[in-house]
Amino acid sequence: MNIYETKIVCKTFQGLEQVLSEELRQLNAKNIEIGRRAVVCDFDLELMYRCNLELRTCLKVLVPIFEFESTSPDDLYNFATRLSWDKFMNVSQSFAIDFTIQSEYFKHSQFASLKLKDAICDSFRKKQDKRPNVNTDKPDILFNLHIFRDKVTISLDSSGVSLHQRGNRVEQTIAPINEVLAAGLILLSKWDKQSHFIDAMCGSGTIVIEAASMAINKAPNLERRYFCFKNWQNYDRTLYDAICLDLENKIVKFPFKIIGSDNNKKAIFVAKANIQKAWFQDVVEIREISIQKMIPPLDRGTLIIN
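RESULT FIELD:
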């Protein structure tokens, strides 16, 4: 069944669903439903663009296009070859398939994704005597295959690579915190963005960078260039450019202090490099000092330590 442009599925980490749903409410999303590691709302083209640009606790933005039942890889292939893939891509575009499978009928998840890949290629070959190329690095079109028991959902992945990849990292320290998780911690802290913010064990600076982005009201992926939705047939560049201009005009100055400190020289070096790449050197102060000797600024503020 074709269900194109009815729902948006925003993926996140378990435990951040409520935070993500509140972000969607602030974007005026309609009919929000909280699931497990995901929040669903009604589809709207402008909203989909804004979700990719503005959501801080979202990993991927998916748009379901097909739903059907299947109990074997061959059945999946046979059904998928009859679907209208040319509505979503052309034969000259590259594609890839991401997958999440929990089913007793599909014990080898990669084999199911290969069957879907073959179905897409064979569908184009049958209609146009040509087949599209597969590109697993940065495809033009990324499909998401989700199978739970016998229920198959195929979605367009509008994001491409995960939205936690803000493009701020020059380097990282051992076991850095994910940007989406860092943003979730800050939002859960209820920091009002009208007071100081401190991370006294800042490592590579992920938490203070996320805090700085919130403080100046900068959309986390405003400067990102690669989104798969830009390759979709319904891509509206005029609308997208207008949204980006609107977000740029909403950036403000932050009159308080954001401080990251650590007693590890390597961490300090990496944090400063990452902050400079993110253009937050005028917003974030990095100090080389142990947590025992760290003296916070006067007045109220929020302290977060990972």
